């Protein structure tokens, strides 16, 4: 997720933190395409999904509207990933409550979050599992969030978290194994 305008995004994020309202507009212009691509990847392949990438980006941006204290571009995308996760979970919950009795069958997730063989992990189940993982090991939960909802590579996560690539890869294997056990899926990829 590294981009040629990383420096400009970081500068704009700093100006935003200092109260420059114009920086927010330029930041949206600069990062909108990347946010939309991330949203498209998250929604790709979702059966019966009515939320569109543009709507996901706009809803996530609304959640970020009052935030202005980002260390850099990677930090911004980490927070954006959390906002997108929240929007997706809220959307699935709202769809389920619209059905009479609230008991819609679980829909498969797209390839971005369906990391178990078979790809039949439900977003709400994943969200619940991430909540449990966060209580047990917040760093592992953050790693999953950065990877799936933030679209960051292992290298980018290592840089964002200030740790080594080998540590990220080791912790990633641990997080996948924990989630596979918790979600009752097959062998993790």
Describe the structure.
There is one protein chain. By secondary structure, this protein is mainly α. It has one domain (6-183). The protein is 67% helix and 0% strand. The protein has 8 helices and no strands. It has helices at residues 6-17, 21-43, 53-64, 73-98, 123-136, 138-149, 154-161, 165-183. Helix 1 (6-17) crosses helix 2 (21-43) and helix 3 (53-64) packs across helix 4. The two termini are 21 Å apart. Residues 102-119 have low confidence and may be disordered.
Question: Distance between termini?
Answer: 21 Å
Average pLDDT level: 75
Q: What coarse outline follows from CA principal-axis ratios?
A: globular
Structural class: mainly alpha
Number of strands: 0
* H/E element sequence: HHHHHHHH
The helix count comes to 8
Question: Main β-sheet: number of strands, strand sense, barrel status?
Answer: none
Number of domains: 1
Unreliable spans: 102-119
How much of the residues is beta strand, in percent? under 5%
* Rg of Cα set: 17 Å
Fraction of residues in H or I helices? 55-70%
Features:
single chain; 189 residues; mainly alpha; globular
Offer a concise description of the structure.
This protein has about 190 residues and is an all-alpha fold.
List strands and helices in order, with pairings.
Elements: H1 6-17, H2 21-43, H3 53-64, H4 73-98, H5 123-136, H6 138-149, H7 154-161, H8 165-183
